[in-house]
Design brief:
The protein is α+β, with helices and mostly antiparallel strands. It has helices spanning 27-38, 63-70, 83-91, 130-147, 229-239, 396-472, 483-498, 518-524, 530-541; strands at residues 2-4, 21-23, 47-52, 75-80, 103-106, 121-122, 160-170, 173-178, 183-187, 206-212, 217-219, 245-253, 257-263, 266-271, 292-300, 303-306, 512-514, 554-555, 573-578, 587-594, 597-605.
């Protein structure tokens, strides 16, 4: 049933919303609707507004199905995109309008004026979107009714306590075969806000609730567990111990804290210091509301959580069920397959030509009508019609001119209709691209968090190892009293750290001696760290130095360039390798190469050519 909205109607004069879909066709009625949804206390139910796209006779969503689903819990209004929707939009705050075939639910709580997420704009671009946008509006309307307390238990003789077996979950609905073989439906919106129905029910589960034989809905809210915050907190303390890795979903996130929900009634704020040690991280970039994450219970009294010390290999504890016999209410999502390439914009197809008579009246263009337009085809002039049927007082040229103007207007309308169809198609593509981009962002956030946690763990392990090493060393950081033993120890540690396990067999440390005065030159030469000298010594002893461009290894010549190579009586040759590059008095390492090994001679500055 489609009802006209009388301009004199006042919503406070009635105790229930209209029983049918109301259609608004005048600007005063549209302004009155805007005033009603914006004025607290003048309405007692949510309002669903579905608009008819420009150039269409019917909406892309189904207002009657919405009304059948919400019943007396919400008002359903149908409004064309025209001067009527412009009148409505002018009265509404920025961002809260609706037109062009879209729909929106206005809840009772006026928080949606400042927070548009509480009154989401549901887009529809063609009749192919009918099922989707209809379901979205039903979902939003029932959520708004639940938030407004319109579904609290009321004295109603037709309500019955019934039980049955869940037959399956299909999207946001579950089918339950009652014990008398009749079928009831569980609606996701009438359970736990923000929790998918598949996280509450599973096929074969027994369910007990309040049954309405008129709507055939089975209300399970009285059977829900952990809805009381104090009971839920006690359940968390009994279920999880300190140190356990558990699952939580992200309830909210700011730059410095993330709110994690262990149970619907238990939300814990986790500060930045328990998430990341990277001062450049903002938590908004690491988490997405609704995302499921693993965290660790740091304390139970009061309840504290951490996210910075959970290994990927640690299996989280199984989350509790929110209904008796139900599935765990939280599970880590399976990794998504590689997303497909974003499809190109769909080609525009010509819209069917409108019926020649009667032509719709001209209207003001709306934002959804705007867009790049091709050349408007110019119709060919028509031949002069017979004067027998011409209206009185009109000669042949006038009739021809009117026919040409009519043909031009029809051609313009056809071009605009094609443009509009193309824009609607492009809008649908952009919405799909946005959904895809949001999924990619969530995946990247998860990967970054994992990498960041791995980095933090590695840093902690390194610090722990350094601490153990410091405890093993003396007060001056030395492991040996003898200077040569200490130097050889440092060379061995650097070789162990630097050479991978797979390469240690092929890159062993060669035998070497410390020449007279070598350790003294190491201690006395300023401008170079001992660690750098040790690192280059390892490169020499593993023969890597000849493959590193920055080392510039070469035989030492007596007196510098042009002199003879320096040799010893035993046949050993003296070599020189750079410890530094492009620095004043750059430091060098001198060593002897003999058939049976190496002898480290001294470290010196660039212009010192003594062996």
């Amino acid at each position: 049933m489609l009802l006209k909205e009388p301009s004199t109607t006042r919503q406070t004069d009635v105790l229930a919303p209209p029983s049918g879909v109301r259609r608004i066709d005048t600007e005063p009625d549209a302004r009155d609707l805007a005033h009603r949804v914006l004025t607290p206390g003048r309405r007692q139910w949510p309002v669903v507004v579905l608009t008819i796209p420009a150039g269409q006779e019917e909406p892309f969503g189904d207002p009657h199905e919405v009304k059948d689903a919400v019943g007396d819990l919400a008002e359903v209004v149908l409004m064309p995109t025209s001067d009527v929707s412009w009148a409505f939009s002018r009265e509404m705050p920025p961002g809260t309008q609706v037109y062009g075939g879209a729909g929106r639910v206005y809840p009772l709580d006026h928080g949606w004026v400042a927070n548009l997420a509480l009154s989401r704009l549901r887009f529809a671009y063609s009749l192919q979107d009918r099922r989707r946008v209809t379901d979205q509006l039903i979902h939003d309307a029932l959520e708004a009714a639940l938030a407004a307390g319109l579904l609290e238990p009321r004295t109603n003789p037709r309500l019955q306590q019934r039980s049955g077996t869940v037959q399956g979950v299909i999207g946001s609905r579950a089918l339950v075969r009652l014990d008398d073989s009749s079928v009831a439906t569980v609606w996701e919106e009438l359970t736990v806000p923000g929790v998918a129905l598949e996280r509450l029910l599973v096929r074969g589960q027994r369910a007990t609730g309040v049954y309405d034989p008129v709507s055939r809905r089975l209300d399970l809210r009285e059977a829900l567990l952990f809805t009381n915050p104090s009971t839920a907190s006690a359940a968390v303390a009994e279920t999880y111990g300190i140190g356990d890795v558990v699952l939580a979903d992200v309830a909210a996130v700011s730059d410095d804290a993330v709110s994690l929900r262990l149970l619907p009634g238990v939300v814990v704020d986790v500060g930045r210091d328990a998430v990341t040690s990277n001062a450049n991280d903002t938590l908004r970039g690491l988490f997405t509301p609704g995302e499921i994450v693993a965290c660790r219970v740091a304390d139970n009294d009061p309840l504290r959580l951490r996210l910075d010390d959970v290994d990927d290999e640690e299996a989280p504890a199984t989350a509790p069920s929110l209904l008796p016999g139900g599935p765990p209410w939280l599970c880590l999502p399976e990794p998504e397959p590689q997303p497909p390439a974003i499809p190109a914009a769909r080609p525009t197809s010509p819209a069917p030509s409108p019926s020649p008579v009667p032509d719709p009246p001209l209207r003001r263009p709306t934002p959804l009508d705007m867009g790049p337009r091709g050349r408007v085809p110019v119709p060919r002039p028509v031949a002069a019609p017979s004067m027998d049927g011409a209206p009185g007082g009109m000669d042949g040229p006038q009739v021809i001119r009117l026919h040409n103007e009519l043909a031009a207007e029809r051609a313009t309308r056809e071009a605009l209709a094609r443009d509009l169809a193309g824009l609607r198609g492009r809008a649908a593509d952009l919405e799909n691209e946005l959904a895809h981009a949001n999924r990619v962002v969530e995946q990247l956030q998860t990967r970054y968090r994992s990498a960041d946690l791995a980095r933090q763990r590695a840093t902690k392990q390194l610090r722990s190892a350094q601490s153990r090493n410091e405890n093993a060393l003396g007060m001056d950081g030395r492991a040996f009293l003898d200077a040569e033993d200490q130097f050889r120890f440092e060379v061995c540690c650097e070789w162990v750290r630097r050479i991978s396990p797979a390469e240690k067999a092929s890159k062993p440390l060669a035998d070497y001696l410390l020449g007279p005065g070598f350790l003294e030159s190491v201690e006395q030469l300023a401008g170079i760290s001992r660690a750098k000298i040790v690192a280059v010594v390892v490169e020499v002893l593993t023969d890597q130095v000849h493959h590193l461009a920055g080392r510039g290894v070469h035989q030492l010549r007596a007196g510098g360039a042009g002199g003879p190579y320096v040799r010893r009586a035993d046949g050993a040759t003296c070599w020189r390798v750079a410890l530094q590059q492009d620095a004043p008095a750059a430091r060098r390492l001198h060593y002897w190469r003999a058939p049976d090994g190496y002898e480290l001679s001294r470290v010196a500055v660039h212009d010192d050519y003594r062996p």
